[in-house]
Amino acid sequence: MVESERIQIPWMASEHSAVPSVEMNGQDLSLFETLDSQGCICSPPPQPPESSAADGYKLGFVERTFSAAGSAILSAIIVNPLDVAKTRLQAQAAGVSYSHPLSNMTSRMAYFGPTMMFADLRCSPSCARAAIEGTVSICPPDCFRYKGTLDVLYKIIHQEGFARLWRGTNAGLALAIPTVGIYLPCYDVFRNWLEEYTSKSAPSTTPYVPLVAGSLARSLACATCYPIELARTRMQAFKETQINKKPPGVVQTLLGVVSQVKNTNSPQNCLQGYRALWTGMGAQLARDVPFSAICWSTLEPTRRELRKLVGGDDANALGVLGANFSAGFVAGTLAAGATCPLDVAKTRRQIERDPVKALRMTTRQTLMEIWRDGGMKGLFTGFGPRVGRAGPSVGIVVSFYEVVKYVLNHQYSTS
């Protein structure tokens, strides 16, 4: 009986025999791909979907850099006021005094001139006038001490002008192309390469690929463009107290950092002066590497699940935008909160005006100093504006970046 079955159905004798096909709509379609060990007909296994257009695998490094730069510019403009508030709070905790413009004799003499009748120091409405010198109102010191995020924004607007909320934005824009233009494209390249490598050599390590790729990409971007980051922090932390004098820009700020070291009596001060442009980079890396690791290891699985809800690989641009912004917002918020103490240490090292101390400080020493001065509250100074800034910032950067890649890839696919 078994022999007769073998004669009647000879094609079941081998799994590697030719597979019959039928013609349908002018095409030959394979009926069966494989047979199991018992000779049962099995349907073909589902094929993995092609790479999503939003992943941008077909895009080159230039297109990725263009997408990243655009996202960084948009983010820098929108969230810069919160960055200023965060830096002011941390700088104040470090001992930076935001004093009254008439606290020194030079500023006083500048005010008492032909136009002194029109002088107005724009005290906050909630502050009572402490005294009047001539026709100039002098506000009490509390008017220049920040109590929280909203208080910082409120007092900057009334005392310095609305435009000062975007102090350091030009430095942020100068960082857009070199920093994010390196960071996001390199993250894509590292992630794709590591995923391909681990899937073949060590599949169990594949879930950790975003963590490693984000850390490597952020380290590269930070080391490349750190001096501009140093200038931005100083521009946001210090305000110009001299009347009718324009605050220093990026170049002037960096030259001031170098000149502070060169003016000391230390030997090799010329070399040390340029080394000062990287003051605090260790603290920056200590903050940014864990931030990127936490951010990307949270963002990747979150947006993968959200993409499934909006159509997966068939999602339109709006779906890609929503999924990536939501995932970026959640990931950025968590990462910013976890790394806040390191951000406080980074700010304190960057605003240190004693050149000798700045070059000798370490991140560990800075954290211990912050703990001695303010305890746990000191370590989380500026937590509110940092978290409030990081969530929207990461969401804007990632969603804009992915949408531009999606649009560019879609155009290439249809052309």
TrEMBL record:
Its membrane topology is listed as: Multi-pass membrane protein
Q: Which GO terms describe its cellular component?
A: mitochondrial inner membrane
Instruction: Name where it's found.
Output: Mitochondrion inner membrane
Instruction: Report the record's Gene Ontology biological process terms.
Output: mitochondrial transmembrane transport
Q: Is Transmembrane among the key words of this record?
A: yes
Gene3D superfamilies, per the entry:
Mitochondrial carrier domain
- Which keywords does the record carry? Membrane, Mitochondrion, Mitochondrion inner membrane, Repeat, Transmembrane, Transmembrane helix, Transport
Name the InterPro entries for this protein.
MCP_dom_sf, MCP_transmembrane, Mtm1-like
This one is known as: Putative mitochondrial carrier domain-containing protein
UniProt organism field = Lupinus albus
